[in-house]
TrEMBL record:
SUPFAM superfamilies: Alkaline phosphatase-like. This is Alkaline phosphatase family protein. Keywords: Signal. Residues 1-32 form the signal peptide. The keyword Signal applies.
Length: 511
């Protein structure tokens, strides 16, 4: 949420103060739980959204239920986009969670919801109503736009929509917890989405570094504990397969607030526990779009490629060759603005790969001298608001050539570096396809070229980038020449204090 889309009235601030002193708030208004259709699935999913919950503050809170889920489930943290793709605010965040696609697809860039494209990219409850209408589904929210704008509730068999902006979130969060607890104990739902908003209010009013913010986390953790206990108390629990997912839409600054590009505002997480989800796992390749994909996977639903999902199930690891480089990642050398504890870059190439810097100039920023391998946490910290935050479709470790950052320290000569793949067997094949994800920003005379070398021969240019490509999948299919036994690819980048080129998800297939 953000202050620009709500009126935080004195009554709301008072409610936030009350939450800070009450270990478990109680509902102020009685709402009768709706009667849901009887569920039809033994595979069941509860998604709990906690607005504006900065994951690195959980450790300082009591939060026993969140911490238990971290021990018994998989906990993936990641960073959001920033403008111009979208603001780090609730409209884009919850749209990303619900639809399973990034803002350049779902269209929501800020809290006006202008440009929303839910007709093409509906929320996961709406998808379930289309492909598995026999499921019993429920949604409860107290930020009204999640209903009014069609972000979360469409497709639900029953819903509870309250107005936290008008009435305060403390009492309404408690009502949502009580009603959902009743439904879990006394009815047979299959899929539920419930939302709690007070963490965001506490962040705005007191800042993410405050005791009030930690207390708000503890209150919502108590609600989570009640929902988990209700699941375990179900008479049919032993025959059911429950998945519980907890997530958030954005982070908060220490002093309170979000919407911008600071690392603290961009922090998000997906925490999941259930069948097939590893206990204690801390994947580096999880993204916020993975919530919807995990819901579908846990229900045994294979998404139609036409849905265009950007996410994957949380238990599915990336097979990208750069992921093997995590043990080699180092701390800063020249990038003094990056905290020393962030291990996020290396010049070590994956096995079979190489970097050719024979034409590189001298000097420059050590981390970016030639093709490097880095994480979002490290690379996007090197300089804010130059669209490095838009590298959303890269996961974990990626390759980056960044002439702009390299030139921030005295250097001479050009930036000229080539990343070379292993040789891939193509004997007897008619075509070979190179797949990858690219973030590329064009400026001036810089160049970005892909070249192919057949049987170790002279590399031939097969693609050249001349315009921006903002984190998009790429596919390049080539005919295999007669007599070719193998092919290797080269990514050649030159620049003179221009921008950068990122590649990730490299996959070579033959046909």
């Amino acid at each position: 949420m953000s202050l620009s889309r709500r009126s935080v009235l004195a009554t709301t601030a008072a409610a936030a103060t009350a939450a800070a002193v009450a270990p478990l708030a109680t509902a102020t208004t009685a709402y009768a739980a709706p009667t849901l259709p009887n569920g039809t699935s033994k595979d069941k999913v509860l998604v709990v959204g906690m607005d504006g919950l900065r994951h690195d503050v959980i450790a300082a809170a009591n939060a026993p239920h969140l911490k238990s889920m971290m021990v018994n489930g998989t906990y993936g943290t990641s960073l959001l986009y920033a403008n111009p793709m979208a603001a780090t605010s609730s409209g884009p965040g919850w749209s990303t969670i619900s639809t399973g696609v990034w803002p350049d697809k779902h269209g929501v860039k800020e809290n006006s919801f202008a440009g929303k494209n839910y007709a093409k990219y509906p929320g996961f409850l709406a998808r379930l109503a289309q492909v598995r209408p026999q499921l019993s589904t429920y949604a409860a929210v107290d930020w009204k736009p999640l209903d009014a704008q069609g972000t979360v509730t469409p497709g639900a068999d029953a819903k509870l929509v309250l107005d936290g902006d008008r009435d305060g979130y403390t009492g309404h969060d408690a009502t949502i917890a009580a009603e959902t607890e009743s439904i879990l104990r006394n009815q047979n739902p299959d899929v539920l989405f419930v939302y709690f908003g007070q963490t965001d209010i506490a962040g705005h009013n007191s800042g993410a570094a405050s005791a009030a913010y930690r207390q708000a986390i503890d209150v919502q953790d108590g609600y989570l504990g009640r929902l988990l206990a209700a699941i375990r108390a179900r008479p049919s629990y032993s025959t059911e397969r429950w998945t519980v997912i907890v997530t958030t839409d954005h982070g908060h600054t220490d002093s309170g607030g979000h919407g911008g590009s600071a690392i603290e505002e961009r922090r998000t997480f997906v925490l999941a526990q259930g069948p097939g989800i590893a206990a204690g796992a801390r994947p580096a390749d999880t993204r916020l779009v993975d919530v919807a994909a995990t819901v579908f996977h846990q229900l045994g639903i294979v998404p139609d490629p036409a849905w265009g999902l950007d996410g994957k199930p949380i238990q599915e690891r990336s097979s990208d060759p750069f992921e093997a480089l995590h043990p080699a990642l180092s701390a800063r050398v020249d990038e003094t603005g990056i905290p020393a504890g962030v291990l996020g870059w290396t010049h070590t190439a994956p096995s079979g790969w190489s970097v050719v810097n024979s034409a590189m100039g001298t000097g420059g920023v050590t981390e970016w001298r030639g093709w490097s391998f880095a994480t979002d946490e490290f690379w996007s910290r090197s300089q804010r608001d130059q669209s490095r935050e838009l590298n959303v479709r890269s996961r974990g470790v990626f390759a980056v050539a960044d002439s702009d950052e390299w030139d921030d320290k005295a250097s001479s000569g050009p930036y000229d570096s080539t990343l070379v793949t292993p040789a891939y067997a193509v004997a007897g094949k008619s075509t070979v396809t190179l797949g990858l994800t690219t973030l590329y920003r064009q400026e001036g005379s810089q160049s970005a070229r892909i070249l192919a070398s057949w049987n170790g021969g002279t590399p031939v240019e097969v693609k050249r980038y001349t315009a921006d490509v903002i984190s998009q999948p790429q596919s390049l299919t080539l005919n295999v020449p007669s007599g070719a036994a193998n092919v290797s690819f080269r990514f050649h980048y030159t620049g003179s204090n221009n921008w950068y080129w990122v590649i990730d998800g490299v996959k070579v297939t033959t046909g």
